[in-house]
Amino acid sequence: MSDYSLEGQSPGGRRQDLKLIGKAYRRVDGPAKVTGQTVFADDYTAPRMVFMKLKRSHLPHARIVGIDVEKALAMSGVVGVLTGRDMPDTFGILPVSQDEHALCPDVVRFVGDPVVAVAALTEDEAEEAMRAIVVDYEPLPTIGSVQEALNTPEPRLHEYGDEGNVHKRITMEFGDVEAALKDADLILEDDFFYEGNTHLPMEQHATVAVPEPDGKVTLYSSTQTPHYLHKALTKVLGLKASHIRVIAAPNGGGFGGKSDPFNHEICAAKMALKLGRPVKITLTREEVFYCHRGRHPVQMHMKTGFTKDGRLVAQHLQTALDGGAYGSYGVASTYYTGALQTVTYKLPKYRFDSIRCFTNKPPCGPKRGHGTPQPRFGWEVQLDKAAHALGLDPAQLRLKNLVEPGEVTANWLKVGSIGLRKCIEAVVEGSGWNERYGKLPFGRGLGLACSSYLTGAGLPIYWNHMPHSGAQLKLDRSGGVALFCGETEIGQGSDTVIAACVAEVLGIGLDDIRLCVADTDLTPVDLGSYSSRVTIMAGNASIQAAERAKELIAEAVAQRLDVPKGRLVFADHRVFDAGDPETGMSWQEAVQCAESLHGTLGTTGSYTPPRSPGRYRGAGVGPSPAYSYSACVVEVEVDPDTGLMRVEHVWMAHDVGQCINAASVMGQIEGSIYMGLAEAVMEESAFKRLPKNRSAALVHKIPSMLDYKSPTFLDMPKMSSYVIEDPDPNGPFGAKEVGQGPLLPMPPAVANAVFDAVGVRVDQVPIHPHMILDALAAKAKGRPPRFGPGAFPAFDFGTPLKVPTPDEGGDGKATNPEEAGIRKDQGTMPETSNTGGPRR
Amino acid sequence: MMRLPSFRLLSPRSMDDVTVALADDPASTRLVAGGTDLLPNMKRRHQSAKTLVSLRRVEALRGIQGDGSSEVRIGAGTTLAEICRSDVVKSAYPGLHEAVSSIASPLLRNMGTLGGNLCLDTRCSYYNQTEEWREAIGYCMKECGDVCWVAPGSSRCWATSSTDAAPLLVALGARVKLDSVRGSRVIPLEDLYADDGIAYLTKERDEILTEVLLPSSDKTKTTYLKLRRRGSIDFPVLGVGVALVQDDAGGVEDVSILLGAVRSQPTRAKAAEDRLRGGALDDDAIAEAAQLARKPAAPLENTDFLARWRGAMVEKFVARALTSLRGR
């Protein structure tokens, strides 16, 4: 079903000096996973452990009038309950959105919002007790969409936020967009819609909390962010941080859905402390849909100017996000729907307006691609429309506008290496684009799209000057190396990445390394598995720790062998003289030399991203040490009689900088194709209301794996993947991300392919068959051959924050923060307070 | 995880024990064969039972007898996977093979049985949800409530018949045997169903469907087309089962066209059949018949896909089914 090729950037082909890095090899966690021996959070058990369930709201918005737990407490096996009163402090992933309670104390904001926690000796008893709990509510008006949120400023879902039920409002302008558009030969204005969807990891969230005799508590949890969970627990439990230990179990998939601290995690810890016995909770699939934090539904208005030869002039992008009931990562998501528009194609002037609204639905947050697939969809479809309007080939139009390596974009993002040209060339050649595009029979079509993504966010979620990732090595006379790192394996292969980085530097095997990861007591802090940051940050930290260990060993071996330190080579489990390979010793002997010379051996490494040049409010979202690039061609078969579509073949090229493990890179590319395809053609977090005269219900339409449609094996196309390696100076061995980027071009490439196949535009995803039929019917009647959303919601964004571009001689600062209404002491993300800069 | 409520499980070996157990307390006793329909429904608490009678050990319910030249008998406890593997079914009733192969997924077909698929509970996106979800909408008339949310003005339940086997088997003219302590009876499969999402089966609560009897396949050509989102797993949002007998000149001697998943029972496209019967099976006839087939279909917004699109697909799929049979 799939094939792939690796293409090196250097003239001599792929890097020859690397022994392990770049090759395809088995993951360190592979054997345990394929033989069922991996211990996931739900597999943990402990003596005297009890089971917990959460009583969740069945109303979308209501005031809690009364809670009756008497009947539940009297039931067989029930050992305790918690309500909102037990945990009055709020938490939330972002410092500016501390709007969640472990249990709702007074108001519930969506169907699924938890109100009571109950623990019992068995899971069955806990479930029966949960059903016996009675909560009385006074219903409140509900909001189901961005438009309803704008129409309903009162009552507010939260007492904070920019206005009414608008959680966040952003408007900023880099250069004078309207003036620039006057010189454009072609201006396209389009409205797009990207429906929300969810992560659908195979593993449901689970947590086991274990109290300790000295008043401490340990949490085993399926979390992508043990460090942030640790912070939230510290805040809500009121314990010293050093008395709480969080261990992230290997995640059975995350995709961003386990990046927030969750109600059930905090309740489990509190319940364990209250009862003095271990507490387990494993969510049902429906509860996972309620935890959500998935892709925001986003409506977009995109106005872009082009010259007649296809160069970009300026863009004005407006986005409106349906945020759901809580903040989550939403402020960051909002910025991300605009931040990365500039890093693929050179956009000289750019304006971005956005709002995120609160609605009575499960909170949206970060899903693979975090906030960027939505505008990427609009952008790549609009480029396709521009190519047609200008009579240019869509691939050539893109090649004409590529950002240059090392460039600083209009919104002050510094790009490093960029292998996008090679990506486009690879998929154009592989798909036979030049011979086949526009020439296939009616019903068959090709579509092309590109994208870019972060390799780690440039700033942490809470402002600080400490490293984003740390690693620690312990070596001793056994020759074994213990690697301690806070990074979290969520299936993406990060355990293997850090082990491989250390093995490469020290010239040893993966099996010589004992990993201890994601344990807030034992491992140095790593911020978590999000924003494609682990390879670059934990990888660089691990390399630094390994280089320091290598230095200690080299010093000792040089002394013993009487060889200059600089001539020593670490490879094949040996340390030897490059000039005379026979002169040397085994790795174990070398470590023993070093332990004899230095005493007990240990080193550390850490990583902090470079400072970004942007100095305006909002500049904190978008910067990254390196950007990955992807290009893709999709071939579809569309049945014009039914509107049914099948994606037949996907050619995906991804610039990963440098593979750490080529097998994992391929896995990530194919997994991204899968998830991107799913969002393009079927997955959607749909909600429904009932007739308003009969019911105020507002429910998730399909909170189950049967009815929330995600593709099966049979729905997958043939995949041809091309790994492009354009090493980035900031990456470990030059590596950039691959976990998220290749998802991004899929939805627009599918939409563009539909146009090539049957000549109609569907300006929204997922693309359902009726949309294609409706567009074909419109075309037949002489109306615009399009299916898509109507006008962008009317909203006054006010005066934009004006930031001159680098080309205009700007310094990265805004010229009018006061006029744009920005107050110095009230940032939503850390930006202008970026003084002093992080230590490297 | 979702937990099953507690119940008593009986696991008899003989049919007599099954019917006696059923007769003991028909209202709160349910039969379970593969469990692929009932057990998820019980976890979600929209079906319940004090007693489950497992049919897994009742050998008399399993097996396929006959070769298609005369009547073929399929035990109701025969698994869907066994039917998929049957050479008799493949050669004599290819439409049945198509229909059964399209049910759920390979793993579910290993457990699910033909009887289970024929008695499959009707489905609806307001009903096949957890207890908590249904509480959030105030329940519906199929379980605990008094409104049919997909048709709030209606006095009946519009849950959708979602069996893939039934449309084809009804088209074939299959009969089914129902057993109880009161005796046995054989009825046309078509008569097993009623157009009501709640009372969708006409069998009595103490009766068990034990056998499916297929008429000789002589001269009858069959096919089944299924519309669903994905290549596997999904229930139908439209099924078209056709049985066709042509005369020597290729004219239509007899034809049955049954639609699945567009009402609460497998639905006969009678006007379409009448248009075709006795005439030529040419393009015009197929087009007109397909158009007539649209009328009895009443797809509603209680499955995957838009109802109006599903309705439009009836015509397309009936035309395709007829055209493909013409060529065989």
Can you put this structure into words, describing what you see?
The complex is a heterodimer of chains A (840) and B (328). Chain A has 19 helices and 33 strands. Chain A is of the alpha/beta class and 840 residues long. Chain A folds into 3 domains: 181 residues, Aldehyde oxidase/xanthine dehydrogenase, a/b hammerhead (Aldehyde Oxidoreductase, domain 3, Alpha-Beta Complex), CATH 3.90.1170.50; 367 residues, 2-Layer Sandwich (Aldehyde Oxidoreductase, domain 4); 141 residues, Aldehyde Oxidoreductase, domain 4 (2-Layer Sandwich). In chain A, helix 14 runs parallel beside helix 15, helix 15 crosses helix 16 and helix 17 crosses helix 18. Chain B has 2 domains: 50 residues, Uridine Diphospho-n-acetylenolpyruvylglucosamine Reductase, domain 2 (2-Layer Sandwich), CATH 3.30.43; 228 residues, Uridine Diphospho-n-acetylenolpyruvylglucosamine Reductase, domain 3 (2-Layer Sandwich). In chain B, helix 10 packs antiparallel against helix 11 and helix 11 runs antiparallel to helix 12. The model of chain B has no long low-confidence stretch (mean pLDDT 97).
Structure keywords:
heterodimer, A: 840 residues, alpha/beta, Aldehyde Oxidoreductase, domain 3, Aldehyde Oxidoreductase, domain 4, 3 domains, seven-stranded mixed β-sheet, 25% helix, B: alpha+beta, Uridine Diphospho-n-acetylenolpyruvylglucosamine Reductase, domain 3, 2 domains, five-stranded antiparallel β-sheet, 12 helices, 12 strands, globular
Write the layout of secondary structure elements.
The complex is a heterodimer of chains A (840) and B (328).
Chain A: E1 2-7, H1 30-34, E2 50-56, E3 62-68, H2 70-73, E4 78-83, E5 107-108, E6 114-120, H3 123-132, E7 134-139, H4 146-151, E8 166-174, H5 177-181, E9 186-194, E10 206-211, E11 217-221, H6 226-237, E12 244-248, H7 263-275, E13 279-282, H8 285-291, E14 298-306, E15 312-322, H9 330-339, E16 349-357, H10 373-390, H11 394-400, H12 420-431, H13 433-436, E17 444-454, E18 469-475, E19 481-485, H14 494-506, E20 513-517, H15 534-561, E21 568-571, E22 574-577, E23 580-586, H16 587-598, E24 601-607, E25 627-638, E26 645-655, H17 662-681, E27 687-689, E28 698-700, E29 718-724, H18 746-758, E30 761-762, E31 764-765, H19 769-780, E32 786-787, E33 801-802
Parallel strand pairs in A: 1-29, 2-13, 8-33, 9-31, 11-12, 15-16, 19-20, 26-29, 30-32
Antiparallel strand pairs in A: 2-6, 3-5, 3-7, 4-6, 8-16, 9-14, 10-11, 10-13, 14-15, 17-25, 18-19, 18-24, 21-22, 22-23, 25-26, 27-28
Helix pairs in contact in A: 6-7, 10-18, 14-15, 15-16, 17-18
Chain B: E1 8-10, H1 15-24, E2 29-32, H2 38-43, E3 51-54, E4 64-65, E5 72-75, H3 80-85, H4 87-92, H5 94-101, H6 106-111, H7 114-118, H8 131-136, H9 165-172, E6 175-180, E7 183-188, E8 208-214, E9 220-227, E10 238-246, E11 252-260, E12 267-268, H10 270-276, H11 283-293, H12 307-326
Parallel strand pairs in B: 1-3, 2-3
Antiparallel strand pairs in B: 4-5, 5-8, 6-7, 6-8, 9-10, 10-11, 11-12
Helix pairs in contact in B: 10-11, 11-12
